[in-house]
C-alpha cells in the first residue's frame, strides 16, 4: 500500500477573471504523486470551497508543489 502525505500546491488563477488569486492549497495524495495529479487535486479542492464556479483546470495555473 502506498503511503499518503500532505502536499502544498501553489496555484494562480489565469488572467481574465474578475478576481485574481494566488495561494497555497493543501491536499493529501500518494507520496509519489506527479505534479499533474497534485494540480488536479488542488483544483478539485478549490472547487469545493470559495471557487465553486472555477472547477475547470483552465481557470488555474500550477506555480509549485512541495511535500509537507
Describe this structure in words.
With 68 residues, the chain is α+β, with helices and mostly antiparallel strands. The chain has a single domain, classed as Ubiquitin-like (UB roll) (Roll), CATH 3.10.20. 21% of the residues lie in helices and 40% in strands. The chain is built from one helix and three strands. A three-stranded antiparallel beta sheet has the order 2-1-3, covered by helices on one side. A hairpin with an 8-residue loop joins strand 1 and strand 2 (22-30).
CATH class: Alpha Beta
Helix content: 10-25%
Major beta-sheet overview: 3 strands, antiparallel
Strand order of the largest sheet: 2-1-3
CATH architecture assignment: Roll
User: Remind me, CATH topology?
Assistant: Ubiquitin-like (UB roll)
Terminus-to-terminus distance: 20 Å
Structural class: alpha+beta
Mean pLDDT, rounded to whole units? 92
Shape: elongated
Summarize the SSE layout with pairings.
Elements (H helix, E strand, L loop, with lengths): L3 E10 L8 E9 L4 H14 L11 E8 L1
Antiparallel strand pairs: 1-2, 1-3
Amino acid at each position: 500500500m502506498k503511503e499518503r502525505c500532505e502536499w502544498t500546491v501553489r496555484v494562480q488563477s489565469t488572467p481574465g477573471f474578475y478576481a485574481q488569486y494566488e495561494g497555497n492549497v493543501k491536499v493529501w495524495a500518494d507520496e509519489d504523486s506527479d505534479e499533474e495529479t497534485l494540480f488536479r487535486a488542488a483544483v478539485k479542492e478549490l472547487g469545493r470551497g470559495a471557487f465553486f464556479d472555477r472547477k475547470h483546470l483552465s481557470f488555474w495555473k500550477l506555480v509549485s508543489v512541495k511535500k509537507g
